[in-house]
């Protein structure tokens, strides 16, 4: 609410180990102290795969989400490459929706706060012309017509040339 935006960085962590303690705990302690109105993560908030152990992956996602929910602040998370798709849909999406007082049917969604529209994408399931793309186009139009400031959040940069994902000329040309 009128405060200055100050970015923060996750500390280094060992890959293929649980990130909840090594990465999220120190970062979210700083976030708690800053008391933001809204917290946005662009994904990979957990390691997720943990060498193919589904029990460990579930345990880590539950632990990671607990750090967010314990902040008692609204939060949005875009699914990253390490956020297991089935667990993200089952566990993270309902927790995100609860935090902002909404219901989301997909792993991509919109949240309005003040005069802002936050469009959170699941870039791994995004393709020009698919359902998420059609949804995105409609949300951009609706938000613009409502004179909202529009923020599009995805794990990969939305305008990225020379790499896959959103770097398609058909998408960027719009």
Q: Uncertain regions: pLDDT < 50 for 5+ in a row?
A: 1-17
Head-to-tail CA distance between termini: 32 Å
Strand content: 5-15%
User: How many β-strand runs?
Assistant: 5
Task: Specify the structural class.
Answer: alpha/beta
Indicate the mean pLDDT.
81
Shape: globular
Helix proportion range: 25-40%
| SSE string, helices as H and strands as E | HEHEHEEHEH
Q: Report on the biggest sheet.
A: 3 strands, mixed
Number of helices in the DSSP assignment: 5
Strand order of the largest sheet: 3-4-5
If you compute it from the alpha carbons, what radius of gyration comes out, rounded to the nearest whole angstrom? 16 Å
What features would you highlight for this structure?
174 residues; alpha/beta; three-stranded mixed β-sheet; two-stranded parallel ribbon; disordered N terminus
Describe what you observe in this structure.
This protein is α/β, with parallel strands linked by helices. It is 39% helix and 12% strand. The chain has 5 helices and 5 strands, in the order αβαβαββαβα. The strands form 2 sheets. The chain has a 3-stranded mixed beta sheet, with helices on one face. A two-stranded parallel ribbon has the order 1-2. It is globular. The model is unreliable at 1-17 (pLDDT under 50).
